[in-house]
């Protein structure tokens, strides 16, 4: 299966979970060190076809395909540039990531969950971090912020844009999807715990 087919399949899957309502979200995969394939801006992630993908360079410039690359292309490029091992970046607007960001300042710290091992760690004892960043429509500024919070740490497994959604990455589209599933589950656990404790 090629990269586009895999991303189309992931689009259907995230749509079936109500993670990408109303054309929200964007999906990408790295073709090589200089090129990314990413969803076209405004495409519905549950009904993607080959025409909904464009090729961009690592600065977000369109290289191939019709239409405008995702409005958030620069955020994907920032993750690829920082982590050479990453082969796919997924962004969704799940309820769990959106709601928890409205109740959290700074970052979410996850520890003592078995599913932490889904991020490649050997033990549930590892503490992993999910920074919550202020949402912005200024992608240049936001990508600088993302670069700053991701620099010099291997404990950040994703980031959330407040009241917007979550970004997760992996070595390929399937790995990124499994991590996304794990992270959304962990966010739901934290959200429910907040409800119980309040
Ligand atoms: C439906 S508005 C959502 C967008 O503003 C954005 O947050 C989003 O995730 C999708 O943007 P897109 O440009 O289609 O990749
Ligand atoms: Zn979004």
Automatic annotation (TrEMBL):
One of its GO terms (molecular function) is aldehyde-lyase activity. Keywords: Amino-acid biosynthesis, Lyase, Metal-binding, Methionine biosynthesis, Zinc. Zn(2+) binds at residues 91, 93. Residues 5-191 form the Class II aldolase/adducin N-terminal domain. Pathway: Amino-acid biosynthesis; L-methionine biosynthesis via salvage pathway; L-methionine from S-methyl-5-thio-alpha-D-ribose 1-phosphate: step 2/6. Binds 1 zinc ion per subunit. Its cofactor is Zn(2+). GO terms for cellular component: cytosol. Gene3D superfamilies: Class II aldolase/adducin N-terminal domain. InterPro entries: Aldolase_class_II_sugar_metab, Aldolase_II/adducin_N, Aldolase_II/adducin_N_sf, MethylthioRu-1-P_deHdtase_MtnB. GO terms for biological process: L-methionine salvage from methylthioadenosine; pentose catabolic process. It comes from the Bacteria. Catalyzes the dehydration of methylthioribulose-1-phosphate (MTRu-1-P) into 2,3-diketo-5-methylthiopentyl-1-phosphate (DK-MTP-1-P). Belongs to the aldolase class II family. AraD/FucA subfamily. This is Methylthioribulose-1-phosphate dehydratase. It comes from Thermocrinis minervae.
